Amino acid sequence: MDELIAQFTTITGATVRNAETYLKVSDGDLPQAIQLYFDTGGADMESGPSTQKALRASEPTTAASGSGSGSGVNSAYDEDEAIARRLQEEFYGGAGGAGSGGENGVRAPIARTRDTLIGGGDDYGYAETMAARRMRAAIASSRRERSTPNVWASEGADHSGLLSGFAGGASESSSRPSKLAEIFRPPFEIMTNLSFQDARDEAKEVEKWILVNIQDNSLFACQALNRDIWKAAEVKATVKENFVFLQMDRAGRDGKDYLRLYMANAVDDVALFASGTKAEDVFPHIAIIDPRTGEQVKVWTDVPKKPLEFVMVLHEFLDRYSLKVDAKNPVQRKTKPKSSVAHMTEDEMMQLAMQNSLGSTSTPPGATSDPDDLTKTGGPSSDAGDLMEFEDAPEHQADTSEKQESVFWRIRGDNHHAEPLNGPDVTRIQFKMSDGSRVVRKFLLKDRVERLFEYVKADLLPEHQEKRKSAADDKEDSLVGKEFELVSLGKKLIDHLEETIDEAGLKMGTVMVEIVD
């Protein structure tokens, strides 16, 4: 009890006697006693009860003593009444006002006064009460702000509180739901908190492509995309470096706006039903948008399964397309397939009928096709011709051709490649041949670019030649000993031999191998 009294007096500044009284009334509940103290303004609760006890104690005495004692009590009340009347007369202007009030039976009106309120000991703790209430309101407000989930938290932030906010606190009570929520969490670290139009403006300013992902949260494939692709470190690094990334829900306002622009047949369930398309055939939707024109440059028709393959596709796109003003991007060499049979020629209808009869795999009805495929002709053998074309001045080519030729032939062709062990200083590089075949090898970030030429000379071209011989019955010309060029993101690597792979920007990159005729 003494400890409670000490805490009460420390918090409220009340006397020990008042502390004992409030604690007794609250049955020893300290918070309730403090609340009662502030609610009553710190009133002395001993005065009222003691007076009532005295009056109740005097009642038997009055009854026993008879009329003498009763007249004494009445005289005391009369004196009090006279004092009160006199004070009232003084306050309202003297006996004249009081007399007139008595004659007419109407009290004189209260005179208007003007005073200044000054805080002090006579305010019965009102200021302290209001301050305490404001303090409690501020604490509650700060707690609400801390509990509000913020999806745009930084990458290094602890997401346990964030997940708890989205799960209604369920993730705090169970470790398993918390882990599942973290696994399938959207990639907030690389997402851009902008509308589609604002993202276009931002991308034009920083010269980056727009990577769009439309999700349907009812489909597991969309959740698996968050788990397997967007969480991968190599994917996050590539997207952060080269894209403005937007992930939108198909049911949200931004998602519906995007679908109305590019996929009207999938804007809602009614549109999907009308087009004979299932949601799982359309979502998740991944596309690359040109921020300058708003055109869909590339659309994924299949859901990416492996992060490394997805990164390679992104780097291949970056090799073929550029936002530079002087760059020539691939153009469509095929006509877009006609969606209406009425607009097809007789040959096109015959081909369509043959495809349907053979049960050939094609894009599901209503699903989008990849515009990037229309820039390729014939098949994978034409991929090399789809690279960005950079025109150099003829005189510049003449000046540098002899120098590059001499540098190329000085590079060793017998230094075979041994892949390093996995580590933070190791990266993967994809080599793409002119026939579309790809080879992925690991290199150290500190290796010089010249090491890539040595690998192609000593290992890649001989291995590729053996595969071509077995496939073409030894009728193909030999590639070994021929001059070649390595091109990445539109730049010729022969000019960057002394740079490291990291300095040349080849980390997780794609290198095109072009044989010089």
TrEMBL record:
A GO cellular component entry from the record: nucleus
UBX domain: residues covered: 422-514
Annotated segments matching region Disordered: 41-76, 357-387
A Pfam family that the UniProt record links to this protein: UBA_4
BP GO terms, sorted: proteasome-mediated ubiquitin-dependent protein catabolic process
Superkingdom as given in the UniProt entry: Eukaryota
Gene Ontology molecular-function annotations: ubiquitin binding
UniProt feature, compositional bias: Polar residues: 48-64, 357-366
Transmembrane segments: none
PANTHER family: FAS-ASSOCIATED PROTEIN, UBX DOMAIN-CONTAINING PROTEIN 7
Protein name: Thioredoxin-like protein
Source organism (scientific name): Tuber borchii
